[in-house]
Amino acid sequence: MKTNKLGIIAGEGKMPVYIAREATEKGIEVFVAGVKANALEEDFRGVAAVYKEMRLGQMGAAMKFFKEHQVSQVVMAGRVQHSSIFKNLMPDLRGAKFLASLKSMQTSYLLSKVIEEFKKEGLEFVNSALYLEHFMPKKGILSQRKPTQEEQNTIAYGYKIAKGIADLDIGLTCVVSQSAVIAVEGMEGTDNCIRRAGELYQNSKEKDSSVAVVKVARSGQDIRFDLPVVGKGTVETVVQAGFHVLAFEAEKTLVLDLEEVIALADKHHLCLMAI
Prior knowledge:
Elements: E1 5-10, H1 15-25, E2 29-35, E3 50-54, H2 59-68, E4 73-77, H3 84-87, H4 93-101, H5 107-119, E5 124-125, E6 140-141, H6 149-167, E7 173-177, E8 180-184, H7 190-202, E9 211-215, E10 229-230, H8 232-240, E11 245-248, E12 254-255, H9 258-267, E13 271-274
Parallel strand pairs: 1-2, 1-4, 2-3, 4-5, 9-11, 10-12, 11-13
Antiparallel strand pairs: 6-13, 7-8, 7-9
């Protein structure tokens, strides 16, 4: 970092909290703009110098907040539920003008344009996994349980499908059974995609076939936004859905609480792989 201050645009989940904690431990002041109905102020107590809640679309207010505190580098971290677009979108003047200028609402296009807009005000977005690189596993089997040959074939198929939907900016996760797609992630998010796949799978005639949940990054993933993230909740959702294999792209996926995730996978005899 070139500065002793860091701004965080925070969605839900542990990722922005962990970044704030790591930065604070390194003597960096953290200023958090928390997205209403996604981030929680209490999660940042003791790790953020200042926390300010903002509705989705309040771009001008976020810029003003960071500039008032002499912040020049910003991280975008944490999930923003897609339902917030319909329930909590309340743009200010800058945000309304920005939204009116957009040609698409697809995630990668939208967030890249947000970054460009902030840059006009001297605010630079940096790696969204800042200080969390140790949570990005290299290629290999992380769990005690290894995949069968059939499961390896299923994972390879799932990787191709997941890359395809990721590059179409649809989602980053798919659930596949041998050479059939059970579900792909859309606006509902990873966990709900897995749950939906579980319901479909339990009612299918292919219940004895191997199934893999696969999560990837986009080809040419911009590290400044929307990195794939896996956590204990992901593992629990996979188990509850009745699946036994979770694979994710190596060195590009953030696995929060990595040791605990591996322990939880082993507890449920789940195959966990970085591919």
